[in-house]
Design brief:
65% helix, Arc Repressor Mutant, subunit A, 226 residues, DNA-binding, homotetramer, 11 helices, disordered C terminus
Chain lengths: 226, 226, 226, 226
DNA sequence: GATGAATGAGAGTTCATTCAT
DNA sequence: CATGAATGAACTCTCATTCAT
């Protein structure tokens, strides 16, 4: 199950190598999107990339690593596309939730088919669970937000609430992408998503005895982020 | 993609053959759950079932049909387990939502690992999209509820709201099952899920001009139910 | 290649057995004609015959014997259909040739598709070479004819001439059956076939020194006929 | 029945691969000739060729294509061997018929067992019907001959006569090859074959009203030739 | 480095045949 | 005798991976 090497065999230093790697990754993404994981085999990828199968194995020690690299590249694309969005701790909670929702919708527009396959179909085959990684960042920020919004901070069960919010937003956006693309463009969709989150948060039960400002005991959220 | 025969090749008539089919299905489920779809191959299944490969193909014309049979059997189990739950149109909306949520949690307890693989990993390979089928039934009932609760009936965008509720409940329950099993037993979890739905519904925008009591235009919801 | 038993395992003595054997043979013929030898397998035959596979093996020890029985049955049918044709040694040569040709055309009308498959496609698989058997009978009679027509008897190379005549008549009729069915009904076709044979015979070179009245040295012709 | 790809999957570029393809084809021919189509399976062929099964499938997409390639190669051999024979319209009819007969005998000497299997046993499995193709060429030339030999041109039923001649020559030669190899070398055999054809042609019925010099109505003969 | 020919374990599937019921 | 469940050798074909050139 757990083969050994997942990372790339060799860092391409020359321009030509970089071009080869790119061609391979693009071909891989193309095949995955067009024909699904069932048609995804290394020979096919190499051929589509216009590269010999030997060259493919020069840069990727095995099939799994190809998927991993593809995932990484996809995640990187997403991160880059989100880099211009600035969270700041002193914004209003509503504004922040709006940003989170907007983000989620935005990142689901980036190669959605590939995103779907990478997260659902081949999640076992060496794909980094980038969905988790990204959520973690946002979750972390949501925690920070809560820290600064004291009235929110005293929620009775912040972990559970976070869990529910993240999953709702993710699932709703993801399903919309898969089967209701028209929703993604509708401002109403976005507004309702925000309303769902805020409604849930605003009526959440408080715990007056809870004065501790939300440093989670064994915080799983920060473990993946710098 | 869509081969022809998905159903079983032959109905077992003698007791012996029934046992064989059962052994095969059990072995198939076991392998799927334990090792995932990657290790799921017909020879392996036959061997685990203590049955010759020929016998397997006597009852299942191909690999896909095995998955399909497994799905059907799983769905049947779920339906049977839900049969005792009675929806009635004149119950309170809150009660109804509680029932929906309880249902969802309950059905996610039935062989959750298999459920996960069947719905996510191999959904393409001939598995009935039973999640959808089940959801449809519940969605239909939610529609009926809305018909009788007039103040709810005047929601501005019932389709969208339904979409969001269904996806939230499903995703939250599903993810809890996959990675937060402890949530499933917690009454707080259930309560919060109900609160999420009710909060969202109660604050939903009304459309005063909308007097039509929710007969969906081209109702995709009823197409699967009697 | 040459398995052991070709004949049937057991002679059906009771009426029911006979019916079973018939059903099997009919199903076999039907499948062979409709789908070719590629689709001809014992389970399929048994099913089509409405008989269990076990019963099939009660009467036919293996697949080959089925083909053999089919061949025999086909040959028998042909023989029966030819039984009314009477050769007599004192008829004119021309009349005799006309009879031979008529015969050949007639026997090629009996289940031609089966005939074709049995003689060409599966000739190796235990099918009696009934074509040869039948030809032999006719060849023998042609020999007898020659005995009584002294001027013909002195042919220089009767064996070769016989060979050529038999093959021409057979091939022309067989091909007509396969691809020019309309020829089989045309009287011109028959007439021309007769003319081909007679023309060839009448201009054949004589051997004045040959006074021996046609007892072939090592007569391969009589070995199969009593 | 009619799958898609019959031709080779990949053209061998390097010397090594050409050798592989050759080894495979030779092994295939060898097995076919020695053990018949029943023993012809891809693993066996690969093994006999001293090549891995994977290599076989690198060059031949399926079993059928192997047969097809074998047929093509056989036909090519035959064509090459016949290329030195020149037909000319102004030769005597007798000379021409002698040439046709000589041709037929000659081409039946080229790997006769393979020829037999390819034309009879596996004709359905993707083998080009090269026998037909070749005959067509000769038939076309016979037609041309008739055009220039006016007294012959006025035959009452040239199509039928052609049909009979071609089938006689083919069948006699083919059967001689299968079971009377000694005939093939005898000059008498060839002479008698010529006499059969010429006798049949010379006594053919004329049609005085037929002045049209043999342009066949729907000429099936020319359809395969340029 | 790049190429692509070669490999072979292994997957899906068929079907002649046996034998317990 | 009849049934049909069970068997498993055999067959076609795929694809991740290696390695000589």
């Amino acid at each position: 199950m757990a083969k050994t090497p997942i990372k790339q065999r060799k860092e391409p230093k020359q321009a030509r190598s970089k071009a080869t790697v790119n061609a391979i990754l693009e071909a891989a993404a193309h095949i995955l999107v067009k024909d699904g994981y069932g048609a995804f085999n290394t020979n096919h990828v190499a051929q589509k990339a216009g590269v010999s199968i030997g060259s493919l194995y020069q840069y990727f020690p095995n099939k799994e690593s190809l998927i991993a690299a593809l995932s990484l590249s996809h995640v990187t694309q997403i991160r880059d596309s989100l880099s211009d969005i600035e969270f700041s701790p002193d914004m209003k909670l509503e504004t922040f939730v709006q940003l989170v929702v907007k983000n989620h919708i935005k990142l689901h527009r980036i190669n959605p088919k590939l995103h779907h396959i990478l997260t659902k179909e081949v999640s076992a085959y060496g794909a980094l669970n980038h969905q988790q990684v990204l959520s973690d960042e946002i979750q972390e920020k949501l925690y920070w937000m809560m820290k600064y919004h004291t009235e929110t901070a005293k929620l009775k069960n912040p972990q559970l609430i976070l869990f529910m919010i993240m999953n709702s937003v993710e699932a709703i956006t993801h399903t919309a992408m898969s089967s209701k693309m028209e929703y993604l463009d509708s401002p109403l969709f976005e507004a309702e998503l925000v309303r769902l989150v805020l409604g849930f948060l605003s009526e959440a039960e408080r715990d007056p005895t809870n004065t501790e400002p939300f440093i989670p005991p064994e915080n799983p959220v920060t473990k993946n982020s710098k």
